[in-house]
Every structure is written in structure tokens, then in C-alpha cells.
Amino acid sequence: MAESGIVKGLADEYTDGTPLNQLEFLIKTLTRDMSTAIPVIVTAVQAGDTAAAGYVDARPLVAQIDAWGEAIPMATIHHLPYFRLQAGRAAVVLDPVVGDIGLLVCAQSDCSALKQGQQQTAQPGSWRKFDQADGFYVGGFLNTSVDTYVRLAQDGTVKVKAPGNMTIDAPTVTYTGDIICGGFSYLGHTHTGVHGETSTPH
């Protein structure tokens, strides 16, 4: 990290040496401030609810460097809209948490004029391009193992693991196949201790 908070510029003793060096320096200077996609860690979450997604604050995990190869401290980027798997009025609600690692994807133009739920084209708020302030958070990458999940396998099986309780909130739940509970088949089990064995459920 640069000492005493002093950041050295990109120019060096060769910058003005030839017209080619000058052109190379100009190109590096113009493109250095362009952000495309950056790995970040979530530092704060303003979670939404089942109605809408929210925002995160995040800090880049890869530092920029100056002309001398010294790391430049990275600032936290605030109020980034985060990704939610959603189509129309249906969604998978899974809000990020502090410590999640994801990707900051920076838009081509100033997106500050966009509002939640807006469907009309908006005028860019400024002339800035590929700026981190116009980023969107997509998670997660390079994170640790989980203990709560829904797993969809290629053999057609689905596994749901929930260490806590699972609630299904629906007027009607329809099962088209058998249910195995505690090793017993719902459709195939029988009862003893009554007047003979019961018939199979119907």
C-alpha cells in the first residue's frame, strides 16, 4: 500500500520519451478509470422484502496499483442494486448478507436516474461511462459451503435441506406421487390392531 497516503501517478521517466510513449500513456490514462466487472465483498445490506429486492454496499477485493506497483486503498461503493432471480410476480427471495463475495458489474452509462420498478427509458444523469457508481451486485462467487439449500440434480432428483423449519404457504398442496415419511409410504402403508388390515389409502 502506498506510504503516508501518497499515491504516485502513472507517468514515469519514459512517458515523454517518444510520441509512441505519450500515446500509450494517454490510452492508459483514459482506460484506467473504466470499470467493467470487479470481485467485491458485501459490507452492508439494505435488504428488500418479498415485494422488491434491495441494495448492498460493497468493497472491491482487487486493488488498483500506481505506476510503482503499490496498492491503492479501495473505497466502499454504496447503494448497489443486487440481483434477484425474478420473472414478473414470481421470484426466489434470497438476500445477500455481509461477507458475501460477488461481482460488481458496471453499466455503460450513468444509471442514477433509474428508479425501482421503472419501465420507461431514462436520460443518463451525466456523461460518465463504466463507473463503479453505476454498478449492480451479482452474487455469489468464491463463497464457503452452505447448510441450507435446494439442489436440482441431472438425474431428475431434487433435494431440499433446511436445518430449521420449512413452511409452505399455499391454499392447496398437490402431490402426484407417493410420500415417504419416517420410512413409511403414504400410499402403501397399512394398519394393524384394528378389525383386520386397512385398505390402502385412496
Protein described:
It is a single chain. The chain is mostly beta strands. It has one domain (3-185): Beta Barrel (OB fold (Dihydrolipoamide Acetyltransferase, E2P)). The chain is 7% helix and 26% strand. The chain contains one helix and 13 strands. It has one helix spanning 19-32; strands at residues 37-46, 55-60, 64-65, 71-72, 77-81, 86-87, 90-91, 101-106, 135-139, 149-152, 158-161, 180-181, 184-185. The strands form five sheets. A five-stranded antiparallel beta sheet has the order 5-2-1-8-9, with no helix packed on it. β10 and β11 (158-161) form a beta hairpin. The radius of gyration is 27 Å and the shape is elongated. The model has no long low-confidence stretch (mean pLDDT 83).
Task: Provide a quick synopsis of the model.
By secondary structure, the protein is mainly beta. The protein has one helix at residues 19-32; strands at 37-46, 55-60, 64-65, 71-72, 77-81, 86-87, 90-91, 101-106, 135-139, 149-152, 158-161, 180-181, 184-185.
Name the features.
202 residues; mainly beta; OB fold (Dihydrolipoamide Acetyltransferase, E2P); 5-stranded antiparallel sheet; two-stranded antiparallel sheet; 1 helix; 13 strands; 26% strand
Give a count of the beta strands, DSSP E runs of length 2 or more: 13
Q: Termini, distance in Å? A: 72 Å
Q: How many alpha or pi helices?
A: 1
Find the CATH topology. Answer: OB fold (Dihydrolipoamide Acetyltransferase, E2P)
**Rg result:** 27 Å
Low confidence ranges: none
Shape: elongated
Mean pLDDT: 83
Task: Kindly name the structural category.
Answer: mainly beta
Please summarize the sheet with the most strands. 5 strands, antiparallel
CATH H-level superfamily: Gp5 N-terminal domain
Number of self-contained structural domains: 1
**CATH top level?**
Mainly Beta
State the helical fraction.
Answer: under 10%
Written as H for each helix and E for each strand, in order along the chain, the element string is HEEEEEEEEEEEEE
Largest beta sheet: what is the strand line-up?
Answer: 5-2-1-8-9
Strand content: 25-35%
